[in-house]
Amino acid sequence: MSRKIIIGNWKMNPSSLKQAEDLFRSIQKSVSSKIKSNVIICPPALYLERLKKISKKVALGAQNVFFEEKGAYTGEISAEMLFNIGIKYVILGHSERRTLGETNSDINKKIKMALSFNIIPILCIGESERNESHDYLNFIKKQIEECLSGIIKNSISKIIIAYEPIWAIGKDAKRQANPEEFREMRIFIRKILSDKFGAKNVEKVKIIYGGSVNKENVVEFLKENADGFLIGRHSLDTKKFVEIIKICEV
Q: Which of 55, 58, 94, 180 is the one with CA 20 to 30 A from 25?
């Protein structure tokens, strides 16, 4: 079995540095020293530098980055800032960022900026609804092509693709996605990537699943060759998060 990628997206949680340190230490303590999976925690940017100092078995990622290298951009964080404190990953294109107005073009520029500082982008893609006419396939194709426009072939293997169907995530989720739906999308995503970058160049691209991930459904997604998971609320619960990690280790 290939090495799995398990990413915890803490979003705007927890509310204090002390709580963030306690949670991070708890996760690290609970993770086996012989772990094979690549575990990454993406906390609020405010906590990154402190958590990096205590990071050992668990890597750290950012939840966002700006697409300009420097300048008068109030409130933004540059890729160079993340690089300088040793951050290796960044989530880009999350549906919650897209809801705030982020476009495929914005995400494309952010991916290029991250790659220029050897930071691995975790590109989130996903449709808001499904229909019998399969329009969602064209939607996903457009996301991939526009977000990865101008990316050189040698760089595509450095990008992690996280498929997160919007209709299956959060408190307003219509239902959970089933493994067969993920299999369909995994095959489709890999074909779009292969057509754009060449089959050989995308062999090592990891396609992970996000969307109401829990210990009950990860086994079925793994059977459909999920390369890992992007986990939201359960990454804030050490017991539940570590249970998912252990399942991926089997």
A: 94
Q: Which domain holds residue 54?
A: 5-249
Q: Average pLDDT in the 162-185 region?
A: 86
User: Residue 121: beta bridge partners?
Assistant: 90
**44 and 63 Cβ atoms separated by less than 8 Å:** yes
Q: Residues 80, 94, 224, 234: which is the catalytic one?
A: 94
Helix (H, G, I), strand (E, B) or coil at 121: strand
Residue 164 is among the residues annotated as catalytic for this protein: yes
Question: Can you tell me the distance from the alpha carbon of 162 to that of 91, in angstroms, rounded to the nearest whole number?
Answer: 9
Beta-bridge partners for 42: 9
Cα separations in angstroms, 124 against 9, 10, 226: 12, 15, 15
CATH of the domain at 79: 3.20.20.70
Active-site pick, 96, 127, 164, 234: 164
What the block records as the tokens of 33 is: 């020293």
Catalytic status, residue 134 = no
The string of pLDDT tens digits covering residues 82-130 is 999 999 999 999 999 999 999 999 999 999 999 999 999 999 999 998 8
| DSSP one-letter code for 157 | G
Alpha carbon distance 147, 139 (integer Å): 12
Confidence (pTM): 0.96
C-alpha 224/C-alpha 161 separation (Å) is 16
